């Protein structure tokens, strides 16, 4: 139980820090950020997690991966704080949605399978995902541009870090 309390306290502390940084008397830079302005940092932190995984694989040292996962978690918390301020959703909503999705997509572990419109059990990840996204297929239309934008942001990050292609 202490481990769970510590885990929740650590995440709560990070949320409180981000809220304070964005609040009155906080950091002007943090207070000025938007979902759009944080896109480069989100991409850069994701790439740094990949580097941390490579470091772990090649050296067995986990310090860098821990640090970079923390930076990526900070991105999630920051975006959730922005969304909360905008009245859209909270970090708790994000966590709940992710947990619910994992349970739905693992019926072999958590529950009986979802059923499709004809009452047929859905047991495969792709089938379940397709059922969940029914009526929202148009969202995939945004992916090609998002991947192009991610590639451009990666190139910008490489230049900032002095990494040649």
Automatic annotation (TrEMBL):
It holds the Pfam family MazG. GO terms for biological process: dATP catabolic process; dGTP catabolic process; dTTP catabolic process; dUTP catabolic process; response to stress; TTP catabolic process; UTP catabolic process. Gene3D superfamilies: MazG-like. GO terms for molecular function: inorganic diphosphate phosphatase activity; nucleoside triphosphate diphosphatase activity. Keywords: Hydrolase. The keyword Hydrolase applies. Its EC number is 3.6.1.1. InterPro entries: MazG-like_dom, NTP-PPase_MazG-like_N, NTP_PyrPHydrolase_MazG. Residues 33-110 form the NTP pyrophosphohydrolase MazG-like domain. It is an enzyme of class 3 (hydrolase). This is Nucleoside triphosphate pyrophosphohydrolase/pyrophosphatase MazG. It comes from Mitsuokella jalaludinii. The gene is mazG.
């Amino acid at each position: 139980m202490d481990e769970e309390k510590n885990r929740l306290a650590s995440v709560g502390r990070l949320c409180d820090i981000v809220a304070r940084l964005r609040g009155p008397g906080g950091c002007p830079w943090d207070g000025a950020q938007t979902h759009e302005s944080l896109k480069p940092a989100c991409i850069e932190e994701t790439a740094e997690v990949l580097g941390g995984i490579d470091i772990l694989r090649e050296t067995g040292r986990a310090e860098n991966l821990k640090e970079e996962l923390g930076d990526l978690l900070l991105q999630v918390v920051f975006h959730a704080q922005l969304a909360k301020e905008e009245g859209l959703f909270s970090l708790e909503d994000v966590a709940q949605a992710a947990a619910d999705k994992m349970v739905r997509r693992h019926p072999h572990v958590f529950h009986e399978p979802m059923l499709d419109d004809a009452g047929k059990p859905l047991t495969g990840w792709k089938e379940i995902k397709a059922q969940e996204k029914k009526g929202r297929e148009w969202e995939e239309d945004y992916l090609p541009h998002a991947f192009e934008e991610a590639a451009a942001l990666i190139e910008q990050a490489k230049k900032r870090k002095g990494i040649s292609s």
